[in-house]
Amino acid sequence: MKKYRASIDVMPHDNLLDPQGKAVSGAMGNLGLPEITGVRIGKHITLHVEAADKKTAEAKVDEACKKLLANQIMERYQFQVDEVAS
What we know:
2 helices; Mth169, Chain: A
């Protein structure tokens, strides 16, 4: 079995309201940074997975995202899987 590291980004769908992002966008003006707008806040997740090959590791990460890490009704996700040197 090989070891892989996955980096996963989970973000709210573009058409959904992001109250946390909106609050941060509003605060930027108060901090003297009015040129920063359109903030969207999500999650970054890293994990390790053991699998026979990269394709299998990617399938396991995709399954984890669908079943637990992302709410597909409100969020989208993307990930990258890289082999970890032993």
